[in-house]
Amino acid sequence: MTRLPTIRFLHSVLSLGVLLLAFCSAGTVARAEADHGAVAEAALTKVIRPGYDAFAADAATLAAKTAVLCTDPSHKSLADARAAFVQAVKGWSAVENFQFGPVNHEHRYERLFFWPDRKGLGYRQVQRALSDKDESVTSVETLAKKSVALQGLPALEILLYGKGSDALASRGDDAVFRCRFAAAAAGNIAQLSKDLVQAWAPGAPFTKSFLEPEPDGALYRAPKDVTLELFKAFSGGIERVRDQKLGRVLGESAKRSRPRLAAFWRSGQTFPNMAGNLRSVRALFVDGGFAGIVADQSPGVEDSILFDLNHSIDVLAAETEPVAEAVTDPEQRGKLEALRVGLKSANTTASGLIAEGAGLSFGFNAGDGD
């Protein structure tokens, strides 16, 4: 199986300024620590579970539309399959930040989203399978045992949007095999998303450990551990957009930009994906209870954080140019660089106040490991 990307989900490290803010604030007014159980319950029922439910529904539609494309190829059925792919990316974007729990089991995360792929491994493997007409990629059961780079949304994007994909509207031999591969990938995505819904269902083992941590628990031993996990998803979600998805693609200059490192650049979903990631961050902040924790520490600051998040979402959602053009256009680069500054401000401010209000401590950078 393909070696998994060494850089996993990035999480924030508190800056010296934030630590000083927390230290100084701690000496003023004593406040009750956050209700960790309420944070977990709200995050699960208002953000995580609805997100996975929606993604599973989108993935099921994608599998159905891709199957129709294979049985009745036409320009319309290809357009329908691509539209379903766009919607599935939107669904995935809402849960992508939650890199913990069931999605870590059996490499589900990487099987759904093998990214970043700096060396283009996924593209090479997809092209090899197409060239060899490898039958093992044409059924969900056998594809699920193949390299993670062949199984998920990035691989399906290559099949639906990459070179030669327009032939899917016809019945040529190459197009037929390509479509069978695409249908298997879409079916695999649908099955994985269904598995995740079941794993987060009421009464499921992980759900129980998430809502009712026990002192000898394998994952969480206290409610505060769950809050820390959610905080990493919040802070890491911002950093992932700011540094991995924007910073590395923008590069140090227009000439050194690397648009093909971007997620979903072939389908034009790079900026919608980032906007969706930040909407998920915002939902966790507002509906998951972090905004209330911030407000308890410093009333009114939660509005400033929301302003930065909302502005960033609006800027990304308004981007209509392909990412390759946006990162080389001086005006667009200026907007995106300013957006990164706003995100850093929101993350730094929120991190310090959430850590203080929730009584969280950090002994390591969770983004360092494999």
Account of the protein in words:
With 370 residues, the protein is mainly α. The chain folds into 2 domains: 36-203, Up-down Bundle (A middle domain of Talin 1), CATH 1.20.1420.20; 223-356, A middle domain of Talin 1. The chain is built from 15 helices and no strands. It has helices at 16-26, 36-71, 75-93, 108-112, 121-132, 140-143, 153-161, 173-199, 205-211, 223-250, 270-286, 290-297, 301-318, 323-326, 330-358. Helix 2 (36-71) runs antiparallel to helix 3 (75-93).
Short note summarizing the structure:
By secondary structure, the protein is mainly α.
Task: Based on the model shown, name its key terms.
370 residues, mainly alpha, A middle domain of Talin 1, 2 domains, 15 helices, disordered N terminus
Question: Secondary-structure map with pairings?
Answer:
Elements: H1 16-26, H2 36-71, H3 75-93, H4 108-112, H5 121-132, H6 140-143, H7 153-161, H8 173-199, H9 205-211, H10 223-250, H11 270-286, H12 290-297, H13 301-318, H14 323-326, H15 330-358
Helix content: 55-70%
* Principal-axis shape: globular
CATH topology grouping of the largest domain: A middle domain of Talin 1
CATH top level of the largest domain is: Mainly Alpha
In DSSP terms, counting alpha (H) and pi (I) runs of 4 or more, how many helices? 15
* Parts with pLDDT < 50 across at least 5 consecutive residues: 1-30, 364-370
Strand and helix order: HHHHHHHHHHHHHHH
Largest sheet: none
Structural class: mainly alpha
For this structure, the quaternary state is single chain
Structure summary, number of beta strands: 0
According to CATH, the homologous superfamily of the largest domain is M75 peptidase, HXXE motif
Q: What is the terminal-to-terminal distance?
A: 16 Å
How many separate domains? 2
Protein name: Iron-regulated protein A
Main location: other
Domain Imelysin-like: 48-339
Signal peptide: 1-30
